Amino acid sequence: MSIPFRPRLSGALIATSALVAVAWPVAATEPLRVGATFITSGVDPAKGSNGWALTSHGVGENLFTVDRQGKLVPELAEKAERTGELTWTITLKAGRRFSDGSPVTAAALAAGFERTFANNKAALATGGKLSFAAADDLTLKVSTERPVPLIEALFAEWPLIAYKPSAEGGQAIFTGPYEIADFKADAALQLKPNTHFEGASKRASVTLKRFGDAQAMALAFQSGELDLAFGLPSEIATRLKGDPALTVKSFAVGYQYFAFLNTTRPVVQDKSVRQAIDLAVDRKELAAAINGGTPATGAYAPYFPFAGSQARPTDPAKAAAILDAAGWTKGADGIRAKDGKALKLLAITYPQRPDLVTMLPVVKAQLARIGIGLDTQIVDNISEAAASGNFDIALWAQHTAPSGDPAFFLNSMLRSGASLNYTKYASPDFDAIIDRFATTGDPAERIQIALDAQAKLFDDVPVSFLVSPVWYVGVSERLQGYEPWGSDYHVLRADIGESK
Amino acid sequence: MKRLASWGLQTALGLLVVSFAAFTIITLMPADPVEIAIRTWNLPATDETVAALRQDWGLDRPLISRYLRWGWDFLHGDWGRSFRTGEPVLTEFLHRLPLSLSIGIAGLCLALMLALPLGFAAAVKPGGLADRFSRLLSVFTQSTPVFATGLVLIWVFGVQLRWIRPFANDGASLVLAITLVALHSTAVLTRVYRQSLQEAATQPWFATARAKGLSETQALWRHAHPSAFYAVLAAVHSEAGWVIGSAAAMEILFGLPGISQFLVQSISMRDQMVLQSYVMVVAFWMVSVDLLARLIMLRLEPRLT
Amino acid sequence: MKRMPLPLLLLALLFAGGLWQPHNPDAVDIVSRHIGPTFTHPLGTDHLGRDLLSRLLAGGFRTGIVILAVGVIGLVGGSLLGTLAALLGGWREVAILKASQMFIMVPTLIVALTAAAVFGLSPLSAGVALGLAAIGPLTVFTHALTRRVLSQPFMLGAEALGVRSSGKLFRHLLPNTLPSILTYVGNQSGSAAIAYASLAFIGLGADPSLPDWGGMLFEYRMFVFDDPMLVLWPTLALAGTVFLFNRACDR
Description:
The complex is a heterotrimer. Chain A is of the alpha+beta class.
């Protein structure tokens, strides 16, 4: 054992600084630095909500999409034609290429879609299981399990990202303006311009950094660390007014904040308890707590034609009366009880939507006013927690009309037995109402169906609609031209608005 | 040499026990990773899917055989795949380890470098500036959590002075994290060093050395320093564990993509291979620091080891 | 033994804060948020208009539970095992010591973090996990201490006089070891309060609406710009508590 030892630590220090240098290589060209509170959980487009995330990151595209005016427009597809009750023919745009340079063919996309439908139940919401056949390179034959009046909207739904599965279990190949250079789970995504997408030479590469919470992102943005900070906490807007280098833009989004009420839990399965909760929440106070937004009128953001016209009512006195009538009486500690069982519920939400985290203690205080006690929890993995059914109230943020159409949200999250129906709401009457979506493509009729469905939800309260929010996006001088639209479905896109 | 061999044997045995205990505990944790995966990815919950996943992840075999299989693969550089991301765990750790290790190693080294002069100055002049400062530092770091100090420093350097760019994952926030980690260890090691120096100074042979004409400082350095440094090395081991903990808090505070951040995100998914690898990495870290300290001690004072 | 009242008094103060607060610590008042110190809100309110003093008091109660749990579990487990190891000798001594050293190999915070993920983070679950993790180092410490006391002349003398029964040994031994053990346990419980704050800050398995000091620091860290007092007060409360607790145990 003859390791020479010198009582100096310079050796160790040099080794350490070498480590540091290896860990943080200096980039040759300056990529755009983008911060967000969410990042795709993996590069497999069929898993969970990766389809949405990859599209949002500018990596993937859909056959159809919703443009900045909220209109349904073709993206990879050129048009769709109905050829029968359950069959459609989709024509693809010519000349589009995958990021590996191979042409976008019907056969490649068919393989991708087949894979998604086999692995992701969220894809089944509107048309059941679809099957695909490539008639020729640019013609895709689609048959649905249920009649679908508007196939364009179905293909704009987030699970249906278009891709070419790779042969040997490797990564799927996409068509968007960016391609993945490096992916670090939960931390960062390095994107480089997809050289086979128009205008690639004008596009900088992008470093997308995921922040555990929006507050940390705000600090980073404030210290000049980010060119684009998506989903800033609302407090930051006033604070940054004096800084000429940083701009904060706000925009109304298609997202709704609401509370899922688990209809299978011992207490919450009682409709009167759910109605009391719905009446007890003070939506104005919630909107004030998150510094933006308006009390929800129903399932959709107010700018949609199928949104309700009046804010949901708040009436704590009536809520208390309903609970009294149902036999829940107030105890000494202010919490109601019935048959010796305290009215104590578990409310959960998730950090990826910081507004919800702010709202959670406010909801707790509001429910405490009518004698409902609340345990609260923040879970990193909300879809898992919600699917486990281990909650009474889940505060949730959801784009309720991502394809510009009201049906997808109701079908995927509230229909009896739907895969994302976390409330386990099962109402044949409600199902009958939304069944009518399958029979008509007429916009006016679809609006009426959506309003009828919402009225039924207001009555049964499997979900309590809370706030139609406003979001904040921060941009540096380099990205002054960035205009936020489409909620967070298209954060990174071909026309990112970089000033040269 | 013989002692070192016996130490090696004991350590290997210890690692074996820790790995098995961790494997068992992680396996027996409530909540089934397969069910979690099915819910998270919204997979069809058919018997086929479940069976396929179980087989894919090796969950269909008995605990002992899984452990042996894991141990064999682990030693051969296959740390399994993350249930959550589907990526090989080793790759993920290799991505993240340099960061966590540099925080840990640099933190400990910095602490050692600061502790020796500070502790020496404190021992030379008890009640002097160095002594009072090190005592204050010790009281402060013992009672203030490292992330609270970090928050204040972010505010001062990052926002008020704009010297550093917090959350940038650049050198500066790394330096801040390292400094914060080092503060606590500096305080502990300084006090240990100072105390041992003073203890040595009360020994009869120390008076003899002084009588030979050495100044107090010279006598302290030549005769008290070796044994005091020995005490410091012994204390480094317990600090190594502390450093891991505070490095975790730093990774959360600064949003640094190290292994602890990965752990926090993996625990809720019961991502077995990640948890297991984390425990092993931490155990290896503790063992390596211990080994290094022992080697240095052996070099310093072959008789004592 | 005269030193015990001071730490106990501190604990009692922490618990008293949990029994009474000027306001409901969870009550939200959006209109009066971020107001500075007033007569009704001596420390002001947070971003949701909750009374900061009430939240700090309620958080103190929770911190007190952790300190108490770690103290009791560590004290009982560690001193028992350490003393036993020293008295029993032979392979049993080696076994106990080796087991404790293995415990030390896995850092405390990691043990507690895992426990929090599985059982949820509450003062009790964290206190039990941190307490169990503290047994390892305490056993080693007590063992070394006991060995030293045992080798002192009066103990050797007692043994020579035929005091062999363990009851008598304990009677001679404990008064000599207990004071140092208590100091050590006191310091361990103090750092347990810090560890609990770290756990609440990391937030795994915690109920964020409950006023834990560490959780408050996480929740309020953003307001360090506009309302730095929100961060300062919980820091001071925590640092003050741990500082006083350590000092009280030291003398």
